[in-house]
């Protein structure tokens, strides 16, 4: 059966995004540099550079293979409305998912088909319904809970996350959007699976007990 | 010169202690099991079992050596008043530090000498003064900022932490006392030094840039 997984970059102090991350005020609490430190591990990989048309070069080691595997295993994505809204104005025409994407929202909207295999479906019936749709679409591939924090928290509280993959970057944000908040009791239980060392992040992989 | 370091266990969601950790209500949100999961890596080490009179046995690998090194390198400890108050009623006669311990407090009190080389000094003039006293006492050994969270935060905000050692346990607390909060800008900057894998925790070591 498909696995449900999270693969996300996290600051050492537990944030997915720094406080005040907004193009209108690029100097606010140095957020640009913080965000860059969080994403460095990913943007330095050959696979990602190619995907983003950054030109040749990039790392080709085990982290690169992990990034490739993450994309190739994914048969469906689930995301929140805020993440979709931000992406709608910034993704290229060919949105970088190449799978069905289920967007949790209260908004009613027809599916939005993009070139390259990405179709966004707008789900009004909550996270369990989105997961059921994603399972059907993913077939034997896996389901990525893409974000943001609130959506990951909802699936953690449902104890629906099989694998939690965190790229822990050695940067302190001092504020922002926390990954781990608002968890319901009983909290889900994980065990350590593997650790992969990188220069820009430590890749921590946990599996549900 | 002496290094200033933190060596602390942390839950995957960033807490030093679970919510409601109180002997009066041992069942509250399952705190006992959470705390046990956080401390398992430490209490399973031979060096620690001997120190706590837990009897023979225990792990003797690299994590055990790390624990031994942490104690042996320490020439002075600094802690907050709440940590001291909890310890005062629970440490054995021979308090488990064997160094001078500087307690940050507003209370005026004479030094409290314990058998085995631990003397508690009560410092009313703030964290910088406590650090100066600890440096003098530690001579060529290092200074451990023992906790709690608020004291570690004060030294992080002073950019006085040279080495940050975190035993990240694969347990979610869902609430409690967070390590990383209240940091002042500019936040301190660290780089990854080493990672040591354990079954019960991942040992992350960061060095100030």
UniProtKB/TrEMBL annotation, chains A, B:
Residues 3-186 form the Bacterial bifunctional deaminase-reductase C-terminal domain. One of its GO terms (biological process) is riboflavin biosynthetic process. GO terms for molecular function: 5-amino-6-(5-phosphoribosylamino)uracil reductase activity. SUPFAM superfamilies: Dihydrofolate reductase-like (SSF53597). InterPro entries: DHFR-like_dom_sf, RibDG_C, Riboflavin_Biosynth_HTPR. PANTHER family: BIFUNCTIONAL DEAMINASE-REDUCTASE DOMAIN PROTEIN, DIHYDROFOLATE REDUCTASE FAMILY PROTEIN (AFU_ORTHOLOGUE AFUA_8G06820). This is Deaminase. It comes from Saccharospirillum salsuginis. The lineage of its organism: Bacteria, Pseudomonadati, Pseudomonadota, Gammaproteobacteria, Oceanospirillales.
């Amino acid at each position: 059966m498909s696995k449900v997984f999270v693969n996300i970059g996290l600051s050492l102090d537990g944030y997915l995004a720094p406080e005040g991350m907004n193009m209108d005020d690029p100097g606010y609490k140095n957020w640009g540099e913080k965000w860059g430190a969080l994403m460095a591990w990913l943007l330095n990989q050959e696979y990602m550079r190619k995907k983003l048309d950054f030109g040749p070069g990039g790392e080709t080691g085990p982290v690169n293979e992990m990034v490739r595997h993450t994309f190739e295993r994914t048969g469906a994505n689930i995301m929140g409305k805020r993440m979709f809204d931000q992406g709608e104005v910034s993704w290229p025409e060919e949105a970088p998912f190449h799978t069905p994407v289920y967007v949790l929202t209260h908004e009613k909207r027809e599916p939005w088909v993009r070139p390259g295999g990405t179709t966004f479906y707008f789900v009004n019936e909550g996270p369990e319904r989105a997961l059921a749709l994603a399972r059907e679409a993913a077939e034997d591939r896996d389901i990525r809970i893409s974000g943001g924090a609130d959506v990951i928290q909802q699936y953690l509280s449902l104890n629906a996350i099989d694998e939690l993959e965190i790229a822990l970057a050695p940067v302190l944000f001092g504020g922002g959007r926390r990954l781990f908040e608002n968890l319901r009791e009983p909290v889900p239980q994980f065990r350590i699976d593997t650790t992969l060392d990188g220069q820009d992040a430590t890749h921590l992989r946990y599996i549900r007990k």
